[in-house]
Specification:
The structure is a homotetramer of 265-residue chains. Chain A is of the alpha+beta class. Helices cover 16% and strands 36% of the residues of chain A. Chain A contains four helices and 14 strands. The radius of gyration of chain A is 19 Å and the shape is globular. Chains in contact: A-B, A-C, B-D, C-D. β3 of chain B pairs antiparallel with β3 of chain D, so a sheet runs across the interface.
């Protein structure tokens, strides 16, 4: 499945403003970036680095005036997302070292507060993939999904209190529940083909059966069409942009995902 | 200044229990580990790895029965802790890549909620070291320090609501305030000579003037005698031990720090 | 200066052949990748990872039949390459940890064998940048540059014996000489605008005055137009492709670098 | 098996001399460091860092006068070294990313020059462990082992020409042969109980059957008693000490390995 993704954001900058962007796609499992475009208007010096999760990040200082960031990519993604009912829980002692930090509580996923609740939700399920699936189902049935983008991220505890949330919020709660059962879980931010209304999207992955699997409580079933931008412990780690100093919001934000009928690759 | 530190913990294990320990000291700035002892009784297989913050961690699975962990070290520490009033704020664009993640909110340091409060606390101060000093002073005067160890870690928002806390809590609030001003800050866990009552200790560091400096709101002034065990974004990253499965608590926990009069180095 | 670079290679594969490619450009100092294209024909699964030097590498197994790899990019590069006569030698104790490995001898840069020779070449020069410049001048005057691509890489000792070499060979000898004076040096592989005959190019960087500077003994003076593909200790680390099993050579290899007159950025 | 290891080196320093030491043991597979001592006389500031292979390294600048470095440790090592005849070759595509660099040629292991020879040596052997075993046997029978320490490291090509070498030299040739067959191999430096004459030792590991296995052509059979100090691509990466400036040699070098009869763990 070939997709063309694009994201355009425009800002009005009033004072020199440092940004850290995370908008450069990387190739990975189930995703090959065949082309990639990244335009800043005006052109300003940018330094790129790899963060602790392997995401490519761009550092820049925006000068007063308009700033437009436009990225697009052509990506081949898997026709079917891997699923694996019955995939077993991985004992802590067999988890790879680099997966361990995804067991810890984080800013928006207070997994240290959800032990009892998670245990109740997964009662009777086989340890591993089926537990995560039960969590995903529970989220779908218990937390009202509100499409669109909330202003300020809220944490799993707050999502649970509010009983509703955007895609990111449902993911945070799902991650907190998984981790409280000693299942590593991480947030994914990216694009999704066919999302209504179109916007950036967030979902989560859990580590069972020796690898990461995709879960998304905002969809009725796991379809293909996901394009990953970045991974992290939660939204604090995976912000499309982090901006320092007096807050600025994009005056334009335009996200598109298009199916490419065929591609002479 | 030569110190001998030791920490002994005993557990009663009822079911096989995975642990991740962080008790191996590392040499670093202002700290040289001249000798180091690490004993597990009974002896069980251990794997050691370095986490994303450079801490040495040990993985093991404790078997049912008693488990004792004993570590001790002889460490040379600086006679005076570096201080640098007037050290400037480092513009985001000049921060080293690896320092950037210490600007982000984390589990126990919701820096995204403290912008206004931090601005009020540091009003009139020069940007940088003096702001952090003002935060440290404010903590000392406004949040009642309760020596000892709380059961469950609470977050900066909760500490602020409660107006009191243990060393870790004051540090979390200090870190959240620093980060909300775009000053990188991290939690340090370790030993402190002369601490009353003796226990493990927590303080924080802020990155100003091109390096990390030590701050500790639980002490009236910055004395020497600190021995670092580990660094992290907050207590979620720097736990002396993380234990999975049914919770077990140490039945014995004995921490000592002794001054070594002289040492034929 | 906007450049469009492209590299196309075609292979005839007879048995399943694992490849590790290093053809994805990264943004960095003096280089911004505004767009990037990467096409494999036929399309086969690829995994991407970051190597120990920060290069993006692609792993794949080519199946029997033709394989074409085509990459292109639009890159903004600096109009002038930084030069800094007089920039001082950095004492070993002040070198960043991650630079230290560029002091060690490596496969094609036997710096442990060039101490006396290097000392003679830089006699009378100020420590640092001027020493490297003297080495570059000496290479230009003493080792005959043979444009084109040698089949098998040879080492600095062999280059010196032969008194001639391709761009990579001159760089290897330059690197070995720098390291023998305790100046960190690394190989760079990439594109160069205006290179005659056009091909991939190799040059070297030395760490003096607190940063990396570009040197190229194959050119009479340092012009702009360099586009970096990868960094490493020497050609063993920075191969455009590493291929395992029975050797295959590209039947087509077409490299282009074009000046883009102007670009609506 | 409990061992006490120690290494003492004394230098006479005439000008300020930067050193990078690699003498701090780490716990790992088949090795648990229960205690560790590290003494410098006189005491001088030291910074410790982890290199790209996970080794703990110490940086210091020795001042004119005598310098003594003494390290000792109590280590529990495996009673039997793992061996696995028949363990299969790992296809390149399944090698972990971090193992790939051990396929490349390096300073003292010119694996790019040994393809034919390696193929002849392992003729008829099953791919994987048995090939490495055949290489080890061939080394034992074909290259005369000279106990003791050579002054200057020589490369695999030179060892092969000379038909004799110290432990490090045999290992370098073994590594070059393995890598030329696409089997990852690395040098290990450490202690060995019962070595005659006692000194630091070097051996090699090859990655087959999904993990690293130990090989040592200097011994008639694989006994227990190995204590690892460091890993690397070859001796360029794993020097017990790297020293910069005018060369200094230890005036005293005393290495000991003692069996500890029993240890109240």
């Amino acid at each position: 499945m070939w997709l063309r993704t694009s994201c355009e954001m425009s800002f009005e900058i009033s004072v020199p403003t440092p940004f850290i962007l995370m908008l450069r796609l990387r190739s990975g499992r189930q995703q090959w970036v065949a082309s990639d475009e990244y335009m800043l208007t005006p052109i300003i010096p940018v330094m790129e680095f790899t963060d602790g999760y392997g995401n490519l990040c761009q550092r820049l200082v925006a000068q007063p005036g308009p700033l437009t960031i436009y990225t697009s990519a052509e990506v081949m993604t898997a026709d079917y997302m891997d699923q694996s009912p019955g995939a077993p829980f991985v004992d802590i002692e067999y988890l790879p070292d680099e997966v361990l930090s995804f067991l810890l509580p984080s800013r928006f996923c207070e997994s240290d507060r959800f032990g009892q609740m998670a245990t109740a939700i997964v009662a009777g399920k086989a340890l591993g993939y089926d537990q995560v699936k039960a969590i995903e189902d529970w989220l779908r049935n218990s937390i009202r999904f509100e499409p669109g983008n909330s202003e300020v991220p809220i944490s799993a505890v707050e999502v649970h209190a509010r009983q509703s949330g955007v895609c990111r919020d449902l993911s945070h709660l799902g991650i907190a529940l998984c981790r409280s059962l000693s299942i590593p879980a991480r947030l994914v931010v990216g694009y999704m083909y066919g999302l209504e209304p179109m916007d950036l999207h967030a979902w989560f992955e859990a580590y069972v059966g020796g690898r990461w699997y995709t879960f998304d409580a905002t969809q009725t079933e796991l379809r293909s069409g996901y394009v990953v931008i970045g991974y992290g412990r939660d939204a604090a780690d995976v912000a499309i942009y982090n901006q320092f100093g007096p807050p600025v919001s994009p005056v334009v934000k335009d996200v598109r995902v298009q199916l490419l009928e065929k591609r002479h690759a």
